């Protein structure tokens, strides 16, 4: 699984030259710096990825003339002196962004021969000039995240263009180490920019402009040679060279020291710290697209002793596929420039504004979008929180109040929730009580477990066959394991009439027994389709549908069709909602509407924490009175954070567009489905598909150490066999996790995954390409061997 990512070689120092505009002197500064570095190192390289214009005027030719001993090269040369995106069209070539990145990466890798050296990579045009594909240069080269020298504009208007160029790079996560420009007295650009950037901890320096052209070519060449010799020896350039070399060493030192420092200062989540050490903590240098850019110290390796001598120096940074989608939040790729710009705009417009008795456009737009897009006629009001746990806490408060008020229960009466075994709804004290005793909560001193949890049949593939497996203790009531020829058949609610009858009879009896025992239930809480943190269990959708129907039909009809009956139904779609399973709402697979729906995770595309709890009008009205104490007195300092709401609006708009993309059409085709899906599909047209190929899912299901698998939407999960038993405490999947992180081939990207006991799961982002996921599949299959 080959992936171009950020690079950091111990002995090869890399520097990328960007220009605030065209004609600002990038090549002149590159030549000066190459000569200055040549005084420090024998090996200095100049690389021009893309160049347009006549060959004799190419920048690498300039370096060959004025940079003795400098190794110069251009990767893509176009004779037409126009923008690269136009030059490519005129040449009839098809050059992808990945091809350019890979060419740059491979060329730089060839320079990393274990000897001290420097490589300068000079871009073409300005920071936001188009690349061959049409995207901006800043976006094209961002995955490499090379340190940058920005050549500012010394001309009239150059102050603004230089600051704009720096902001464009800064907002994309580049490290702009210095600003350099020609000195001039008329406009005072350098003086202003020096002070401006000093306030932002960025150094700036200037050099004298090159001399005017001489009468003859030979005189001109001699004049420029003298200029370059003097400029490369100048105090300003020498000072920059020293700072740059120091920053390279400091970056390495910081990466290598962070894991150890973390063990002293950080309390990590979901980790037993007696097992933690500096070899198990991974330093994240950056992230882009589907990949983390990581540093992890190898137990047998140190910087002082990097291992056996090699003609190829290895980058300290390894791309690692984010297989957990960063705890299920990642939807539109790390470092997404559009989301970053959206966040910056909202931060500049609002910052954060308090939400008590107020409204702002991003929050209003998001609320209206959610209510309309869910296709649930019950929902009418959106309450904002900051994460799934608190969003579920609010949902429980809403439901318990509504149920208690309608049933006339006093505050002293015990009110419980009804749910499913293996549920997980968050880490707050209240939401922990909504799950049965488990590793997550039973050692929390305040935990009481206020509810009743039903076991349920699960869907999985075993040895290439889709099955619905009934828990052993329920087989007398629900029957034996069933086999299906496809996942679509499992989700065909109309066709499985006999199963619906069996499930309803069982559930009606269970609910009746609970009521006769005098137990008061204030809500049915479910994660529709997949129960996530409890172990990645794909629930039989018929069972979940029948449970909702049984709850609602166990009491008289409500006042209207949007009112709740029996008890309020809460759908926890924090994990499964918002296109995670290929559709806007996971509830649509069940053909039933909830009274309260909680969304988070993918809401902001993986950029910011934000959560919404959307409720029906009947739930809302349960809090209405003339008494302030009857209100929903819940909120956060950052409620309806304007930046988060703005990003969520952009995220949802982008994901809706992606759902009709060519990549998603290819995924559906692989699962033999129509290219376009609508959220209004009937229960008999469930259109089940996954970004993970059918061949891969089947192949894994046949592995001797794999018990079962399933895939739906962007989610793939495999349960590994464990003689000691399954569950969160199992260590059966840790070996596979560690093999994936170590890598299966030298120089290849690795896979950063999370496990839930004996379950290892993989998730793609909405923007993951078929090529990327195919590489992940190949690596996983090899690791399973």
From TrEMBL:
Descriptive protein name: Bifunctional dethiobiotin synthetase/7,8-diamino-pelargonic acid aminotransferase, mitochondrial
Any GO MF annotation of the entry: ATP binding
Record organism: Cryoendolithus antarcticus
Lineage start: Eukaryota, Fungi, Dikarya, Ascomycota, Pezizomycotina
Keywords, alphabetical: Aminotransferase, Transferase
Main location (coarse class): mitochondrion
Pfam families documented for this protein: AAA_26, Aminotran_3
One GO CC term on file: mitochondrion
Compartment(s): Mitochondrion
GO biological process: biotin biosynthetic process
């Amino acid at each position: 699984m080959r992936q171009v990512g950020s690079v950091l070689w111990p002995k090869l120092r890399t520097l990328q030259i960007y220009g605030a505009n065209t004609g600002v002197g990038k090549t002149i500064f590159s030549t000066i710096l190459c000569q200055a570095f040549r005084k420090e190192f024998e090996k200095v390289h100049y690389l021009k990825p893309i160049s347009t214009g006549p060959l004799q005027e190419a920048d690498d030719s300039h370096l060959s003339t004025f940079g003795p001993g400098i190794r110069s090269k251009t990767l893509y040369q176009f004779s037409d002196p126009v923008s690269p995106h136009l030059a490519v069209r005129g040449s009839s070539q098809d050059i992808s962004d990945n091809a350019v990145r890979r060419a740059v990466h491979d060329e730089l890798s060839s320079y990393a021969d274990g000897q001290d050296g420097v490589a300068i990579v000079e871009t073409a045009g300005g920071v936001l000039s188009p690349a061959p594909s049409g995207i901006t240069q800043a976006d094209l080269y961002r995955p490499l995240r090379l340190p940058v020298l920005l050549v500012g504009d010394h001309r009239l208007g150059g102050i603004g263009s230089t600051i704009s160029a720096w902001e464009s790079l800064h907002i994309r996560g580049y490290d702009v180490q210095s600003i350099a420009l020609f000195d001039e007295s008329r406009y005072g650009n350098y003086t202003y920019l020096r002070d401006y950037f000093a306030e932002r901890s960025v150094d700036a320096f200037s050099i004298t402009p090159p001399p005017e052209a001489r009468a003859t070519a030979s005189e001109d060449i001699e004049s420029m040679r003298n200029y370059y010799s003097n400029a490369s020896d100048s105090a300003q350039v020498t000072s920059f060279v020293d700072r740059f070399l120091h920053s390279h060493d400091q970056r390495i030192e910081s990466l290598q020291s962070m894991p150890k420092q973390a063990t002293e200062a950080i309390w990590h989540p979901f980790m037993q710290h007696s097992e933690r050490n500096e070899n198990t903590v991974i330093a994240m240098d950056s992230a882009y697209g589907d990949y983390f850019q990581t540093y992890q110290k190898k137990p047998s390796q140190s910087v002082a002793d990097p291992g056996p001598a090699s003609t190829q120096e290895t980058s300290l940074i390894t791309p690692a596929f984010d297989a957990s989608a960063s705890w299920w939040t990642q939807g539109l790729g790390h470092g997404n420039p559009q989301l970053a710009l959206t966040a910056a705009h909202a931060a500049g417009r609002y910052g954060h504004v308090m939400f008590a008795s107020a409204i702002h456009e991003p929050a209003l737009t998001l609320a209206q979008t959610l209510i309309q897009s869910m296709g649930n006629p019950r929902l009418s009001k959106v309450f904002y929180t900051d994460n799934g746990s608190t969003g579920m806490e609010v949902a429980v408060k809403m439901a318990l109040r509504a149920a208690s008020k309608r049933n006339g229960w006093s505050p002293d009466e015990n009110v419980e929730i009804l749910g499913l075994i293996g549920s997980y709804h968050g880490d707050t004290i209240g939401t922990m009580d909504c799950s049965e005793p488990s590793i997550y909560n039973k050692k929390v001193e305040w935990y009481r477990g206020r509810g009743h949890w039903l076991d349920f049949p699960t869907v999985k593939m075993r040895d290439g066959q889709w099955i619905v497996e009934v828990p052993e203790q329920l087989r007398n009531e629900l029957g034996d394991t069933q086999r299906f020829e496809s996942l679509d058949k499992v989700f065909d609610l109309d066709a499985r009439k006999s199963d619906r009858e069996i499930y309803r009879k069982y559930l009606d009896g269970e609910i009746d027994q609970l009521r006769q025992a005098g137990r008061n239930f204030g809500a049915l809480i479910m994660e529709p389709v997949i129960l996530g943190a409890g172990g990645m269990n794909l629930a039989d959708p018929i069972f979940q549908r029948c449970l909702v129907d049984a709850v609602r039909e166990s009491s008289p009809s409500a006042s209207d069709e949007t009112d709740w009956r029996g008890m309020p139904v809460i759908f926890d779609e924090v994990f499964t909602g918002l296109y995670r399973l290929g559709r806007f709402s996971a509830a649509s697979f069940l053909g039933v509407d909830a009274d309260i729906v909680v969304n988070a995770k993918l809401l902001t595309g993986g950029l910011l924490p934000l959560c919404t709890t959307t409720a029906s009008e009947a739930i809302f009205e349960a809090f209405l009175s003339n008494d302030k104490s009857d209100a929903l007195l819940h909120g956060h300092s950052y409620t309806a954070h304007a930046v988060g709401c703005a990003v969520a609006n952009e995220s949802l708009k982008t994901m809706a567009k992606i759902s009709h993309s060519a990549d998603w059409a290819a995924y559906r085709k692989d699962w033999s489905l129509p290219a376009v899906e609508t959220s209004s599909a009937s229960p008999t047209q469930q259109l089940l598909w996954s970004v993970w190929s059918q061949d891969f899912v089947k192949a894994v299901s046949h592995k001797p150490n794999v018990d079962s698998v399933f895939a739906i939407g962007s989610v793939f999960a495999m349960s590994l066999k464990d003689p000691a038993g399954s569950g969160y405490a199992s260590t059966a999947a840790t070996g596979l996790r560690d093999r994936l992180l170590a890598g299966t081939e030298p120089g290849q990207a690795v896979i950063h995954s999370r496990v839930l006991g004996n379950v290892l799961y993989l998730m793609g982002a909405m923007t993951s390409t078929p090529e990327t996921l195919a590489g992940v599949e190949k690596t996983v299959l090899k690791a399973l061997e």
